[in-house]
Amino acid sequence: MVIGAGPVGEVAAERAARGGLKVALVEHERFGGECSYWACIPSKALLRPGNLLAAAKRVPGVPVGDRIDPAAVFARRDWFTGKGDDSGQVDWARGAGIEPVRGHGVITGEREVTVGGDRVLTARHAVIVCTGSVPSTPPIPGLDTIRPWGSREATSASSVPPRLGVLGGGVVGVEMAQAFASLGSEVHLVITGPRPLPRNAAFAGDLVLAGLREAGVEVHTESGVSRVGAGASGTELTLKDGSTLVVDEFLVATGRRPATAGLERFGIEPGQPLEVDDTGRVSAVDGGWLFAAGDVTGRAPLTHQGKYGARAAGDTVAALAAGTPVSSEAWSRFTATADHHAVPQVVFTDPEVAAVGLADARPGSADRVVDIDIAVAGSSLHADGYTGKARMVVDTERNVLLGVTFVGQDVSELLHSATIAIVGEVPLDRLWHAVPSFPTISEVWLRLLEAYGL
């Protein structure tokens, strides 16, 4: 049985079914999950038009207007999400040999899941938990007196608020701030530090900060919201310096926590991650029957990494059921080894941030950091005044890459080559022979290696 039918749960179920098992997939909301209806897909649909308009303005001779049609943007977003209709996902499950089960599933015993409070299902081999994560709400006085937006409300909105307040400088905060600014909102982004995206290289946050301000977002740095209340003309936000903002909607984007409510009988408190080994087996539960993948594990809360872990867990469960040996060695098909070394992520702002592996050198190590501007023929042709930066972190003892960060317009498609180089531990003197095509932005690889001294 698999609990949670988002992209991660669907992959885990499909891999187990492909391995010959009969699989039940339990979901209490929509088959397809958060990513399909409220996160990755709709957020990128909202961002894309604004990014395109900004890109078109950087190339002389392209006829463009100054405004985006919000109705058309929302309609295209709705096409991608199917307006919440998950029948296609249910049909896909049945076509893959998976039995979809609607209802809230709770683990009530060993290999036992109770759905809807009264339907008891028992797994012969294993249960895989893929329940994702839920928003973390900060304890701000007055927040309970209004109806704040979370990421779901932001990505499913059908109108543009005249004034939007956003709290949080992580991925959701910066992406939604820029999306709604492009759609016509007056956006105020409140962040606690000097720049957004604090987990990335500092230059990434600096360039995204500049991009947000260029897009018209008012960014309040080194700040926070100390109180919220309903005012006569909108929601009043009191910032930490005592100043006040009045907005029509207030998006709280301050992070997420694993959705582990209902597992207290196994000593796991709500919000505490299900710690797993690289095959997805939950370490806190004896018997080896409970597995997990995705955000609920706290390992690498990204859809693509969750699906990667789901492939390992589903394949492991199927192999164990068939009596096939399961290798727990690094880089085996049964292990999610890359979670520790090579996690790629893209922030789809303008400029984009594309990063994999380490953002900086390890403390006390002999690692070397190489930073350069993205200034090659390909970037110059791509956009007038192209501004971007690239970084690589090198293990000088082994002569391999540990991390790469790109920031700039349309750099996301450069990321997979960096991921391959890190996963494959390609020596830099061999990487030198991977000749980038001219004139493309990928020539930045040549410049990075030259700056390193090759």
TrEMBL record:
The UniProt record lists the keyword Flavoprotein: yes
Cofactor(s) this protein cannot do without: FAD
Biological process annotations from GO: 2-oxoglutarate metabolic process
Binding site for FAD: K44, G105, T131, G132, S133, D295
Pfam annotation, one family: Pyr_redox_2
InterPro entries reported for this sequence: Class-I_Pyr_Nuc-Dis_Oxidored, FAD/NAD-bd_sf, FAD/NAD-binding_dom, FAD/NAD-linked_Rdtase_dimer_sf, Pyr_nuc-diS_OxRdtase, Pyr_nucl-diS_OxRdtase_dimer
Keyword vocabulary terms for this entry: FAD, Flavoprotein, NAD, Nucleotide-binding
Domain Pyridine nucleotide-disulphide oxidoreductase dimerisation: 343-445
Annotated FAD/NAD(P)-binding domain residues: 1-304
S-S pairs: C35-C40
Binding of NAD(+), residues: G168, G169, G170, V171, V172, G173, V174, E175, G255
Domain of life: Bacteria
GO MF: dihydrolipoyl dehydrogenase (NADH) activity; flavin adenine dinucleotide binding
Entry note: cofactor: Binds 1 FAD per subunit.
Family statement: Belongs to the class-I pyridine nucleotide-disulfide oxidoreductase family.
Protein name in UniProt: Pyridine nucleotide-disulfide oxidoreductase
Taxonomic source organism: Amycolatopsis rifamycinica
